[in-house]
Structure formats: C-alpha cells, structure tokens
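Class prep. Write one:
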Amino acid sequence: MAGNGLPSVGRVKLTDLVPAEGLPSDSYKLSVSTLSQSLAQYSAAIIQFPASDGALLRAGLDSARLYFHQKAPYPPADLINTNDPREWCKTSGYYADTQQWQETYDYRPGLTPSELNNTIEFPPAGLPDIFALLGKAARDILDAVSYYLNLRSSPFSDILDNVPLRTREISSSVLSACCHARPSFQGAQHHNFATQEDGQLIMFSDHEHQVDKSLISLVKSDKAGLHIKDFQGRWVLVDGDLGPQEAIVYPGLALYQATAGYVTPALHRTEIGNLQNNLFGRCSLSFKLMPKSMTSLTCSEMRAAGHGVEAQFQLPVPVEDFMQKSHPTDQLFNRQNFQTFNFQATQDGSVKSSMRRRKNDSRSKPLPPSKRLRLEAQRVLKERVQDIADKEGIKLRFCNLKECENHVHTLDSPCASIRMKIGWPSGVPFVHPHDLPNKAKLGFLEAYEPGWTATHDMELSLTEPGQTSQHSANCNCKSCSSYICMVIHYCACLFIYISHHLWRTNL
C-alpha cells in the first residue's frame, strides 16, 4: 500500500463526520475518504471525540477499573459465559469467560437489571451516557460509509433500533465494560500463547482471530493491546498511540453482509501477556451497533446504487439466523481475495488503490467470456445509464428478474415510466445488468452504446455460464479457423450420406 494508501491507521474527527443539510463540506468529504481508505486498508480507523466526550470516556474507564477490582476472585457458576449464540441480544449484567481470562459487564437499555439475586448491583458509572455517546457516533460513522458507497441517506435505519427506544423495547446494541487479565481474577487455569515474528512471547485471548457480528464496533481502552489484521494479512497494533479522547472503530460481519461484501470485517485479537504485574488488568469500553432481531439483512440498497451483488448475497438473511449461525473465518475470508471499497475516483480526489491493483493483476490473464460481458454491462451502467438517471432526477430501483419478465410487455407496470425516461431497451427486463441473462446483456449494451458488438475487444458466448457451444464440444482445433474444418467435415459426411442413400434407392 505504500505510496498509494495511508501510511498508518487513519485519524478522523467525529465532528467532521456529522452529516448536515445541503452540499457536503470539504472537511466532510476528506474525512469520509480518510475513514473509508483506512477501513479498506487496515479494517480499522481512529475516531477523535471532542474534549468533553473524551472526559466522559476516561471517567467510564476509571469506574470500570474500580468495578472489576472489587469483584470476587472466582465468579459463581451461573455467571460464567457459555457463549450460547441464542443469547446474542439478551446478555446483561456481569459475566466472566474463564477460558479467555476476561470479565464483562453488558449494559443493554431495556434489559439491564438494577438488582441481582436480591442484592443491589452497583455497575460501572456513566454507562447510559456513554451508550448514548458511542451509539450516536456509530450511526454517524455508518452514514459516512454509506455516503462513500453512494447509498441514500441512513440506508440502514430500517434494521436499527428506534431512537429513542419505544416502551418495553430492548436494545439490540450493547455497551460492554470489559477487563482482561485482572491479577486477582483466578478463573483462568489455562492461557493461550502466541509468538510474534521477532520471537517475543506474548499472550492473546485466543489463538484464532475473532470477528464481531456487529455493523460497527467502537472500542476505547486504557492500555494498548488490540491487534487487527490488515489487507496484506499482517497483524497491526491499532491502539498503540491513542490519545485521551480517541477510540478505535472497525466494521463487523453484519455490515459485510449488508453491503454485499464491499466492506471488509475486522479480524482482531487482544494482547494480554504484558499485564501480569498490573493491578487492574486491561480495561476497555466496547460498543457494538447491532441490527434488530426481527429484521433481515438485504443488499437492496447496494443493488439500487448500481453495485454488483454476488450470488451469495442475493437472498435476504434473517438477523436471528445470521447471529446464531457460525461463520468460519477460514472459509469466509481469504485475505488475498478480499473485496474492499470498489468505487471510481470521486471529484474530491479519493483513491481506490487496492482495487486498482487487483484490476491490473486480473488483466494478466484473460477472463471468461461471461464474466467479461458482465463487467462490460456494469461499466455501461455506471458510465451511461447512471448519468441519464442523474440528469432526469431518477433513483434507480431495479426489479426482480422473474417479476419483470411480465413487466416488459405491459404499459402500466411499476417500472414502465422509469424504463421510458431512461431509454431502457424494449424486451430487456428492468434488472441490474449484473443479473441479466447474457442475451439480455447484449441487448442492453447495444442500446446504450450504438455500434457495440459482441466481438468488440472480446469474443462473447451467448450461452449461459456453465453451458458450452456445439462448436467447443465437437472441435479440437486450436485456432478459431477450425470452425471451417468442422463445416467441411459436416459437408463431407452429408455428401457420403446422400450418396449412400441414392445408391440404396437405385438397388
């Protein structure tokens, strides 16, 4: 990334990310660009809070240290975390993970009790105020990512909690006060170790990396130790030089799913090996902006913005199923093939260096005809159709392929007026070109680029992916001229057959 990317994890002021009416300011565009490039390159960014908010975060950390310091050396059995995925939106109060040497107090509005086992529970102070602060910051950051993705304003509001919560509602998002490796905590009997490349022995909470299922996560800690894997597969210490009013932000699996894989989720782990002689351990405040349980993660907004949506993201995924399903990171994420923010350079000078390298690498070998046709259709969508829609003030919202096959034959269909205004070719369903059959892609390209032919800079097959033509099935010649060989062979066979038939007739 040297020369094209950021030299280190990007820093952004939260006040510059707050959206405002009217045209975006230069500071907003620069901050959004820095945030997005940092998330693409490091899967994390540093958010700078105002001084007054930084004081609230520091006070919350001080309160968390005192809260965990007075806890018993070993938690009761009913307070040991079982990692049950069915409890993802029901955790509240204190619990401990003895295997990870970690204690947590979850504050969840609408659920956190004030009393437990007939005893008064004194939680860390200031959690409601910190929850409101970090929740607002997480939503502003999510809107900034949406702006960079060319999505509409607040596109994820339908899957987020109400602000404020309605009566008897329980928050899906959660604020956790955490403590790693408290010396007086005797619950951990076995510790996991990992060795750095330089040979220094350090302790991590887990051999394998962890990934949050949140949309956005914000973490403020009192000591360095959070490592996140960057785009090149290296573990980077992201909170080594945090200021008193700075916090780390990183995306989670839910945002990866909702953006069709365009936003890379953070793979992280926490170093705890250097805390043995520390009185309080490592304390942190972690806020996770979560989707509501009774909603679904869809990529409709991405499709409406003109982004290609791969097959694995086509169907909506219920949040409840998504949270309870295991996601093996070894299968989901191959860092060499990660999709990052896939956009053209905007007028504010933002650069998509990582995607440009991937495109240059892909040119070294020829692409399959169906994929080249798909990429050509996506290019025409961005360069031709989107310009027409912008001039007409039309928001492109594509139809479902099966439903739109009937729309193209009627004048009163839902998409008829849009197709007419933007000059959509007749007979072609009003579907994102990425999802059109190959024959329909050809009609789409010929309509918006007059003179375009299937032989323009490439040979395109009219067959669907996975099918082969009769020519490729029967001919073993190496050059395209072998088609003539096949014709001659066919004519010879036909001549022999006719001659044989005439001979038998004369007999």
